[in-house]
Structure formats: C-alpha cells, structure tokens
Amino acid sequence: MRFLPDYMVINIETRESWFFEYKVTRTPCYSEGDKQWSMGQIEANAWENYTDLYKIGVKVVITVFCPYYHRPLLAFFPDDPFVIRGKTNVKQSFGSGTPYVNIDLD
What we know:
- By secondary structure, this protein is mainly β.
- Helices cover 11% and strands 39% of the residues.
- It is built from 1 helix and 7 strands; from the N terminus they run βββαββββ.
- The protein has a 4-stranded mixed sheet with strand order 1-2-4-5, with helices on one face. The protein has a 3-stranded antiparallel sheet with strand order 3-7-6.
- The longest helix has 12 residues, at 44-55.
- The protein starts with 6 loop residues before the first strand and ends with a strand.
C-alpha cells in the first residue's frame, strides 16, 4: 500500500493499535519569510491519507525531525495543524517535484 505509515504498534492486552510515521524536513520554506523557521513539509498525498485515517478513528502519530527548528524532534496527531497545500517547483535540482503540504510546527 502506498502512504501507509512506517510502523504499527499493537497493545496485546487492549488490542489497541497505533500507526507511526517518521518524516525529516531539512530545508526551510524560504517563501514563508520569517515563518520559514517554524514550517515543515510533508508530501500532500501522504498527509491526506494520514488525516483521513485519523478522521475515521485510526490512531496515527507523525514524528518530524526538523534540525533548523528550535525543537528539532516533534510528534503530533494529524488533526488540526496549520496546513497549506502547494506544488513544488519541478525545475528545481533537488526534491521529488510532488505536491506537498506546509505544516506549522509551532
């Protein structure tokens, strides 16, 4: 399956399961001005899959490593952060060129 979270943990006693997704954001969103230091990016289709799973009651935790942010390791649920869907510049020399979402890490 595409965009399935990286890990699944199951509590054997309660039969409760959690999905964990790990992301790394290494480049600030320069177009966001001063806000660039608190913005991360995740591929849009993956993000939408995690939010859809979360909306139907599946417990999904996203962990983001962002070395330029003052709290470099964050974990959160995909429920209500500030998200902007955008499109990367396909002419750039790095990155996949796929649609992404900006996430406000604050």
